[in-house]
Design brief:
128 residues, mainly beta, 4-stranded antiparallel beta sheet, globular
Length: 128
């Protein structure tokens, strides 16, 4: 059973930074494609950034240049470093994993085969 637990969310002023963490338990993390999704108020959940087992990364246009996704396979942890935060970056951030170990989709911030496992999310609030 794979479980994902996000942390690191909180309230920050526009222009500030946050680092999100996602601890993954269960077998297979190092082979997964994993990523972060965001759901803002009244919006659909959308991909933000993804990283495959070989370290290839993909970012949504809104995140490129400001966010950095990384992983530590030894700690089975996924990270999202967010800088220069904007009010539109606010929302619930979910980490997710693709058990079929696919690669990322360029420019979309998602994994090719979609996601099979999801965390419960961490809230990011940004004040103007």
């Amino acid at each position: 059973q794979v479980q994902l637990v996000e942390s690191g969310g909180g309230s920050v002023q526009a222009g500030g930074s946050l680092r999100l963490h996602c601890a993954v338990s269960g077998y297979g993390f190092s082979s997964f494609c994993v990523g972060w999704f965001r759901q803002g108020s009244g919006t659909e959940r959308e991909g933000v950034a993804a990283i495959d087992s070989d370290g290839r990364t993909s970012y949504a246009a809104s995140a490129k240049g400001r966010f950095t996704i990384s992983r530590d396979n030894a700690k089975a942890t996924l990270y999202l470093q967010m800088t220069s935060l904007k009010p539109e970056d606010a929302g619930v951030y979910y980490c997710a994993a693709d058990k079929f170990s696919g690669t990322v989709v360029a420019g979309k911030g998602v994994c090719y085969y979609g996601m099979d496992y999801w965390g419960k999310g961490t809230l990011v609030t940004i004040s103007a």
